[in-house]
Amino acid sequence: MPSEIPSTSKRRTADPSSGGWARRSTFHLDGPTRVLDARVNAFRGDVADIDLAGTLFAPHYAAPMARTAIASTMIRSAPGNDTEAASQILPGEEFAVLDLTAGWAWGYSRHDHYVGYVSTDKLELPVTASHRIAVREALVFAAPSIKAPAIATLPFGARVAGTTGESFLETAAGYIHNRHVMPVQSVESDAVSVAERFVGMAYLWGGRGADGIDCSGLVQVALAAVGVAAPRDTDMQRLSVGDPLPDRERLRRGDIVSFPGHVGLMVDDTRLIHANAHWMSVVIEPLADVVARLAPHHDRPILSRRRIST
């Protein structure tokens, strides 16, 4: 949630050898109050990201320690496996750790700066990825053969380090067919085609494609595949992704439509693809049907229509 923080000025020195902690010297409050969104600005009552030094006062500042996700796992709003999921980090994605306490790492995901807690047993030292998974789900084989045992699966967008062979990418965890991966820097041409790979996937609050996905997760993952960085949550996407469309402009494929607490992508001028709790899955359906379900509960079923320039 956004938090009102008095603006600060400070002079400080930081010693990288001190474990990432920076000791403040002098502070004074000045300037207007600034509003910081705690979802994407890492601060707590006891510590804050060193990048916020000079923006807000904190007893301590921490420099991030780079880690990589070993497996798909939820980023949670508080430490504990029974706490609310905030987002999801996929295998090979980076997580910046600011604090380690009792088996939980507090910090933020590198791709969208989303703040939360990740179990430390799901993190390892940084690994430089060479490829990413380009299908909804890829099998990892024990040997470079489709007849070998499948020993794991990886979701779309997971990042891996490996060496390309004739038919398989060899990784430390096993072998992935070359048709299921692409170089990590490659981009696709159509975000909607990416989103369509998830049709039928279960709706999962906070999910980004491992065992389930939510509405803003679907939009974020689809846009990332075509090289467009999008923030995590629906309200963030509504305000920052693409440009507003005039009311007279006809919708077209790839346009982003935002609703109260919800978002989706247009498949064409009349149909929407979205992960939603009504159907509890990713579906394609007429936009008019979505509006009709929302209209009894909201004065403005559609909050915005936006388009990304080609």
In short:
The chain has helices at 191-196, 215-225, 234-240, 287-294, and strands at 2-5, 8-14, 21-29, 34-37, 48-49, 61-62, 65-69, 73-76, 85-89, 94-101, 104-109, 115-119, 123-124, 131-133, 137-141, 150-155, 159-160, 162-164, 168-171, 174-177, 181-183, 243-244, 256-259, 262-266, 271-276, 281-286, 304-307. The protein has 310 residues and is mainly β. The protein has a 6-stranded antiparallel β-sheet with strand order 22-27-23-24-25-26. A 5-stranded antiparallel β-sheet has the order 12-11-10-7-13, with no helix packed on it. A 4-stranded mixed β-sheet has the order 2-3-6-5, with no helix packed on it.
Q: Can you tag this structure with a few keywords?
A:
six-stranded antiparallel β-sheet; SH3 type barrels; 310 residues; 27 strands; disordered N terminus; single chain; 4 helices; globular; mainly beta; 4 domains
Q: Helices and strands in order, then pairings?
A:
Blueprint: E1 2-5, E2 8-14, E3 21-29, E4 34-37, E5 48-49, E6 61-62, E7 65-69, E8 73-76, E9 85-89, E10 94-101, E11 104-109, E12 115-119, E13 123-124, E14 131-133, E15 137-141, E16 150-155, E17 159-160, E18 162-164, E19 168-171, E20 174-177, E21 181-183, H1 191-196, H2 215-225, H3 234-240, E22 243-244, E23 256-259, E24 262-266, E25 271-276, E26 281-286, H4 287-294, E27 304-307
Parallel strand pairs: 5-6
Antiparallel strand pairs: 1-4, 2-3, 3-6, 7-10, 7-13, 8-9, 10-11, 11-12, 14-17, 14-21, 15-16, 18-19, 19-20, 22-27, 23-24, 23-27, 24-25, 25-26
What does it look like?
The chain has helices at 191-196, 215-225, 234-240, 287-294; strands at residues 2-5, 8-14, 21-29, 34-37, 48-49, 61-62, 65-69, 73-76, 85-89, 94-101, 104-109, 115-119, 123-124, 131-133, 137-141, 150-155, 159-160, 162-164, 168-171, 174-177, 181-183, 243-244, 256-259, 262-266, 271-276, 281-286, 304-307. It is mainly β. It has four domains: 2-62, no CATH class; 65-124, SH3 Domains (SH3 type barrels); 131-183, Roll (SH3 type barrels), CATH 2.30.30; 191-307, Alpha-Beta Complex (endopeptidase fold (from Nostoc punctiforme)). It has a six-stranded antiparallel sheet with strand order 22-27-23-24-25-26. It has a five-stranded antiparallel sheet with strand order 12-11-10-7-13, with no helix packed on it. Strands 2-3-6-5 form a four-stranded mixed sheet, with no helix packed on it. The longest helix has 11 residues, at 215-225. The two termini are 33 Å apart. Residues 1-27 have low confidence and may be disordered.
